[in-house]
């Protein structure tokens, strides 16, 4: 069920503290941690503490929580000092878009040139 922790979800386990992560910021509703396979000097994942399978479901069912994720992403960019030079926030939604963990999450990427179009 959306919003409830899922026993088989890696990110739910990070929220619970049973899987380690390099946490860079935590709020009452979000956790931000370094990606284990960074694609840029700044590559941080921002997740809601509540489980939603993707960004679309998160936005539809918990719009304030989606806003919290975006706010935290901006704070992470400021913490990593990429807010002035530019950064990208990416939500991969669905396997065809590259989503591999089905817990909504934003990638905050910065610290290098980011080409367009991506991928």
Please tell me about this protein's structure.
There is one protein chain. With 119 residues, the chain is of the alpha+beta class. Helices cover 26% and strands 21% of the residues. It contains 3 helices and 5 strands. Strands 1-2-3-5-4 form a 5-stranded antiparallel sheet, with helices on one face. Helix 2 (55-61) crosses helix 3. The protein starts with 9 loop residues before the first helix and ends in a 9-residue tail after the last strand.
Q: What value does the average pLDDT take?
A: 96
Largest pleated sheet: 5 strands, antiparallel
Helix content: 25-40%
Number of distinct beta strands: 5
Strand content: 15-25%
Work out the radius of gyration: 14 Å
Structural class, by secondary structure, is alpha+beta
Q: What letter string, H or E per element, gives the SSE order?
A: HEEEHHEE
What is the approximate shape? globular
Name the strands of the widest sheet in spatial order. Answer: 1-2-3-5-4
Unreliable residue stretches:
none
Supply the number of helical segments: 3
CA(first)-CA(last) distance: 32 Å
List the helices and strands and how they pair.
Layout: H1 10-16, E1 23-26, E2 30-34, E3 42-48, H2 55-61, H3 63-79, E4 87-90, E5 106-110
Antiparallel strand pairs: 1-2, 2-3, 3-5, 4-5
Helix pairs in contact: 2-3
